[in-house]
Amino acid sequence: MKDDDRGCPKCDHTETEIDEISTTGGGLSKMFDIQNRSFMVVSCTNCGYSELYKGQSSGNMVDLFLG
């Protein structure tokens, strides 16, 4: 095991990319296909492992992802 525990939870790579996705909720927003829920996605550039975050700043998301 390495001394530094920071990195992708799957492959330990330390480079990430951040994207945003929008999804529909339930009820009327689903029926009318209104995308009212937004998430930031942090993905490992090496293996593609991704995590979704709601209501976080991009700096906090990367820190959570990398450990």
Automatic annotation (TrEMBL):
Matching Pfam families: Zn_ribbon_13
Q: Which InterPro entries match?
A: DUF2082_NA-bd_Znr
**Descriptive protein name:** Nucleic acid-binding protein
